[in-house]
Specification:
Layout: H1 2-20, H2 25-45, H3 66-76, H4 81-94, H5 98-111, H6 116-129, H7 136-148, H8 154-166, H9 169-182, H10 188-210
C-alpha cells in the first residue's frame, strides 16, 4: 500500500511543479500520460507489500581451472558417455547455476546408475551447492562412488578435495592418502596427488605448530 501512496505523492508533486512553472497546458497531457503509464506498470508488476532489499548479483560463476580439467581427464577419461554429463555440468557452473549443474549430473546418474565417475562428480557438485559443506547427500554420493570403484583413485581423491573445501583436514588427508595408494606407479597424476598431499601435510603441521 505504501508504494501506491508514494506514487500518488509523486503525481501531486509533478502537478504542483506544472502549476508553479506555468508550463503550457499541452505539456500537462504528456506528463499525465507518463504518470498513467508508470502507475499501470507498477500496478501490474509492482509488489508494494514486499520488504525492501539491496540488489544482489544473480550470477555466482564457478571458475574451473584448465589444470583441474586436465587432471580429471587423466583420472577419469574424456569423450565418454559419463564425461558428456560432466562437460554440461561444467557449463552450468561457469554460468553461475550450481543447482542446474547438480541436476545435470543427477540426470546422468539416473541414466548411468553404475557410473562411479558420475557419482563422484555428483558428490563434488553437491558440496559446492551446499556452500562448501559435506552434506549427507554429498557423503552418500561419494560413498556410492567408492563402493562402485574401490580400486580407483578418483573417488577418494575428489572426496578429499571436498573435505578440504569443507575444512575437515583430517578426513581430507585420509582420502588423499588413499588416492595416492590406489594410483599406479609411473602415472603422472599420482605425482600430482602426492604433491597435493604433501602440501596438505605441511599446512596441517604448521597449523598444529601455531596452536601450541
Amino acid at each position: 500500500m505504501s508504494g501506491f501512496i508514494g506514487l500518488a505523492l509523486v503525481g501531486a508533486l509533478v502537478f504542483g511543479a506544472l502549476v508553479l512553472l506555468r508550463l503550457p497546458r499541452l505539456l500537462w497531457s504528456f506528463a499525465g500520460a507518463a504518470l498513467f503509464l508508470g502507475a499501470a506498470g507498477y500496478a501490474w508488476q509492482g509488489r508494494p507489500g514486499q520488504a525492501a532489499a539491496p540488489a544482489k548479483p544473480r550470477v555466482d560463476a564457478v571458475a574451473i581451472e584448465p589444470e583441474a580439467i586436465m587432471l580429471r581427464e587423466r583420472l577419469m577419461g574424456r569423450y565418454t558417455a559419463d564425461t558428456a554429463y560432466i562437460v554440461a555440468s561444467d557449463a552450468m557452473l561457469r554460468a553461475g547455476d550450481k543447482r542446474a549443474a547438480a541436476q545435470v549430473v543427477l540426470g546422468g546418474v539416473r541414466a548411468l546408475p553404475r557410473s562411479f565417475i558420475l557419482w563422484t562428480q555428483l558428490g563434488s557438485t553437491l558440496v559446492m551447492l551446499d556452500g562448501d559443506q559435506m552434506s549427507p547427500a554429498a557423503k552418500l554420493a561419494f560413498g556410492r562412488a567408492l563402493q562402485l570403484a574401490p580400486e580407483h583413485p578418483a573417488p577418494p581423491y575428489y572426496a578429499g578435495i571436498a573435505y578440504v573445501r569443507a575444512g575437515d583436514l583430517p578426513a581430507a588427508r585420509r582420502m588423499l592418502a588413499q588416492a595416492v595408494s590406489l594410483s599406479p606407479e609411473g602415472m603422472d597424476y599420482r605425482t600430482t596427488i602426492a604433491n597435493q598431499l604433501k602440501v596438505l601435510d605441511q599446512f596441517i603441521a604448521a597449523t598444529e605448530q601455531a596452536g601450541r
